[in-house]
Amino acid sequence: MSYARGTIAALVDAVVPETPAVGDDVQAAGALDIDLDETVETAFNELQEAPEGPIRSLGYETMPFAPLLALLLDVGALELILKREREAPLQSPDERFAGGPFSRLAREDRMRAIRLLEADGVVPGLDETYDAPIGIVAYLMQGALFITAMAAYSDWGDDSERPQGWEQADYPGPADGYAVHMGYEVDEFEENDYGADAEEGDAE
What we know:
The chain is mainly α. Helices cover 50% and strands 0% of the residues. The longest helix has 18 residues.
């Protein structure tokens, strides 16, 4: 497990947690049960084509945003801890998590750390005060939440299995079509006058 994958695992676990207590009718499986950490890491690493320059010279065809996302999440977690705004004690990271501060926060505190990076913390404040080009941090945080939710509940991503949202909505999946939904059934078809006239015109 890499640092990026382990930190993103803590992210997706906070956005789509496992909730076995609610039973099968709502949402029992969480993001980690469907390996969403791998999907989100891949999505961030393929988000943007790498420009010509140092990144390309290192062998990357796309920008490796996943490690940057992981680093930012730990920065947000440190800010939350230093401000004493976490509401639960630090905990031992799950075995699928990395060892950074974000992974040691409780789920609700992880979402608070993301909120600091997105709107309420030091980084957004710098963006507003100095007009620094760091608005991309808020963009990445919003993207992280959006991509996680989309990957969890839609068929975007791995299409080899039925998406979790389909299971919850009891959606059977796409079909070629149902005759009953295509109008009234026709026992016998007759050409109309226009068709007959057109055939006569062609004969002439």
